[in-house]
Amino acid sequence: MTQRIDDYALIGDLQTAALVGRDGSVDWLCLPRFDSAACFAAILGDEDNGHWRIAPKGATTCSSRRYAEDSLVLETYWETRTGTVKVVDFMPQRDKAPDLMRIVEGVSGTVEMSAVLRLRFDYGSVVPWMRRADGHRVAIAGPDAVWLRSEPPVKTWGQQFSTCSSFTVTAGEKVAFVLTWHPSHEPRPELVDPHEALEQSLADWREWSARCTYRGPYREAVLRSLITLKALTYAPTGGIMAAPTTSLPEEVGGVRNWDYRACWLRDSSLTLGALLAAGYVDEACAWRDWLLRSVAGDPADLQIMYGPAGERRLPETTLPWLRGYADSAPVRTGNAAVDQFQLDVYGEVMDSLHRAHEAGIPAERHAWNLQLSLLGFLESTWREPDEGLWEVRGPRRHFTHSKVMAWVAADRAVRTLEADPSLPGDAARWRTMRDEIHAQVCARSYDPVRNTFTQSYGSRELDAATLLIPQVGFLPPDDPRVVGTVDAVRAELMHGGYLRRYSGAGGTGTATVDGLPGQEGTFLVCSFWLADALRLCGRREEACALFERLVALCNDVGLLAEEYDPVTDRQLGNFPQAFSHIGLVGTALALAADDQDPAG
User: Which residue, among 197, 169, 140, 182, has the nearest Cα to 54 in the 3D structure?
Assistant: First the structure.
């Protein structure tokens, strides 16, 4: 039976991540990187596509689970008729090779355990050759080699191209399993003691979590979101993945299934703000540096997303042998949106670098010249239509949010030059550009009859992204056009208490804007944007009430996917989603700042 998306928990080692279900099965793991091919892909197919389950014999769902302290170490408890057992799942920050460790510990009584390991390389399509070596099991196929060992040794046997085992644990007993990947042409890495690795992992996460400076309301949810963002960080470069998964559907049974294992420039500004506000300056610096490396080059070649090390080629393909989560096909790898033209990313890059400068992060010598180059290109292209932040696969349009972010790019350049006149640049030129964009948006995106900004020039559709207009400073929050937009967006896009992204996104048939059939759930970050807009407009009680409902959507271990379906009460889309957790942190910190400011 297919588990709900929100039935999963996340573990990882800051270079890749795994999803562990409430049934004790690891159903998703890519090795050695976030964007590598999966060796466990059951979440996108079935058990024959790879998984690793450890659970009491005959049990189906755990009794409870939690993260140990403020960490990414998952503790799953199983209460059975004969006793209670705990399974500790984690991936220690790697020295060289990635390890997935699962420690079974008896809590009370005696429990009979069962384990099944089905390794399937290349997204569940390749059955490896399995053999014994040095008392361990080793699976090899093409470039991949995976070793399985246990301490103390547990008897295993092969069955239906799987490795099975059965063992018992009594109170105080521990049995540790270690799964280690390495390139098949290299020798096996040195063995790592799983119990020492567990203590080190807990110490690493304790130290990291202690650096969080936020002490306001909902601190537990905020810190869990920050830990999730850290878990989605590719440590060697500082890039932050949008999600660790691909093709988890926005509509069960639908085709809106995308690969989010990449780093979006659009996330950069909000991510920087969240990290800096919570005291994580080192992570903000690493993200800023990743951003500068990735966007370096001809501004005409700027992409909306890159691989975790700044890779540009992310070709989209489908995997026909996977039926998709709950028969939601196709399953995709790569993302064709990488080739889209999206004006807003220039504004997001400029705003990110401006935020970093204001926060006192030392500027890179070449950063300002790079920004001038981006502005020069934007000056000649901002009047063109684009695909917009929702990456529509329909015709290009003059999207309001795209133009507003082009305004942001010019505005941040003007502010930078005003703050430091010694920098090269023509402030008057960027002021003129800023004013022209502002006048055009107000003239062509605003519907005076309905008193709202619309999704694009001359359209009637509404878009949740227009809620960002006061947040980025395009208009003050008390401007009647902003207030009208907030009311209109809430009235038209609200569904079951949460916001859809835009008009038509939840309808049936082919949506006129995005060019895709079917529908989708409510988009969680948009609801956080609504809470932010309500707060800015002086409607704090409404903002707090919405924020509390959003926090309540987190699953039992504090994780959020991209979307939520209020009809079926289930999370949808790739999981966990960085954008959703960034929204949670940003709104929480803004509301807390009001509490500390008597004038707020």
Answer: 169
